[in-house]
Design a protein that fits this description.
12 helices; 14% strand; binds phosphoenolpyruvate; alpha/beta; binds magnesium ion; 8 strands; eight-stranded parallel barrel
């Protein structure tokens, strides 16, 4: 994944379940750029996944990847991703409703259980944690505060974890784009979620097939946003990844590299085609 002129782009894989880990290894991705942890909740039936269960799965991912990174995104439940084990109530507009970090900060006992599992697993590999659907610096600060509390708990209990665990923020709301400069000072790394960012920028539900002819994933507003984000994050000397579906759109790869995107994270079966495309670019 090095261009003809010698620019290296990290190519990582997105996963949702432990079964995907095997596919990541087979595709020889540079790491797991997005572990959609909400699938642990969705697949657990009527019971919430316990700390032990989550720890086991995250540890499995960490150990399987060795020194390669594993980014666990905390549960982005709600919206199109409803879990039987968690009653979130009815939303008239689920995609812009009670979901992601909003649920985590609201139901903080569930969030704490997940953070404990992630921190414990961080002792077994190169693991980091990332927060979804951020719209405000305050949300990041609150999430970090809870993470610090859990770290102290684990220290008291003498349970090993990586004290230097890196914290990531997803840029997938227009609000996050506009404050990406401020967010850049609050976290260690960033990943653009183009799926949500596109639907929220266009004001069009990504799951509504009747909108297909209007749903322009190459909309200039979106591409302009990606450029702005990359600049703001780089000004703080930090790295910007892109993990939405657009990362696998090979007609945009060259543009993303020109914009300064440091990492592209795609489904495991898209990794090799993307690496080939990067190698062809001047
Ligand atoms: C995104 O919004 O682009 C993203 C990666 O998150 P998800 O598709 O899981 O909402
Ligand atoms: Mg998203």
């Amino acid at each position: 994944n090095i261009t003809q002129s010698g620019q290296k782009i990290d190519v990582c894989a997105n996963i949702g379940t432990r079964e995907d880990i095997e596919n990541v290894l087979r595709s020889d991705a540079g790491g797991i750029g997005l572990f959609r942890s909400e699938f642990l909740y969705i697949e657990n039936g009527t019971k919430l996944p316990t700390e032990e269960h989550q720890f086991h799965v995250y540890r499995l991912a960490a150990e399987a990847m060795g020194t390669k990174k594993v980014v666990i995104r905390t549960a982005d439940l709600g919206g199109e991703k409803q879990a039987e084990c968690l009653e979130l109530g009815e939303d008239r507009n689920p995609e812009i409703g009670y979901r992601g970090i909003r649920v985590s900060l609201d139901k903080d006992e569930i969030f704490k259980t997940q953070l404990r599992a992630i921190l414990r697993a961080s002792a077994y590999g190169n693991m980091s944690v990332m927060f979804p659907m951020i719209t405000d610096v305050e949300e990041v600060k609150q999430a970090k505060l809870i993470l610090e509390k859990i770290k102290n708990e684990l220290k008291d209990e003498k349970i090993p974890f990586n004290e230097e665990i890196k914290i990531g923020v997803m840029i997938e709301t227009p609000a996050a784009v506009m404050i990406s400069g401020e967010l850049a000072r609050e976290a260690d790394f960033f990943s653009i979620g183009t799926n949500d960012l596109t639907q929220l920028t266009l004001g069009m539900d990504r799951t509504n097939s009747r909108l297909e002819r209007f749903y322009n994933t190459h909309h200039p507003a979106l591409l302009k946003m990606i450029r702005i984000i990359a600049n703001n994050i780089h000004l703080e000397g930090k790295k910007i990844a892109l993990c939405g579906d657009l990362a696998a759109d090979l007609s945009l790869t060259e543009k993303f590299i020109q914009m300064g995107i440091d990492e592209l994270s795609v489904a495991p079966n898209q990794v090799l085609a993307l690496r080939k495309k990067i190698r062809e670019i001047q």
